[in-house]
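Possible regression after last week's pipeline update?

I re-ran a chain I had predicted before the update to compare outputs. Posting the input and the new output here so someone can diff against the archived version. Not blocking, just want to make sure nothing changed silently.
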Amino acid sequence: MILILAFLAGAALGAFRAKSRGGSVGDMAQYGIAHGFAGLVAAAAVALFAALTGLSDALI
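New output (post-update):
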């Protein structure tokens, strides 16, 4: 669930950035997908780091 939320937050940020720069709908979609996947990868990396160091129990 956290990964889905990270993707959606990144997608929203990307679409907002594209819109503020005067981008079209295609630009907003491209920025949204790119930022969404970046957020997804970052959240997965943090979750993996927490699991490997034993912090995942403290985060729940």
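Follow-up from reviewer: compared with the archived run. The radius of gyration is 14 Å. Marking as no regression found.
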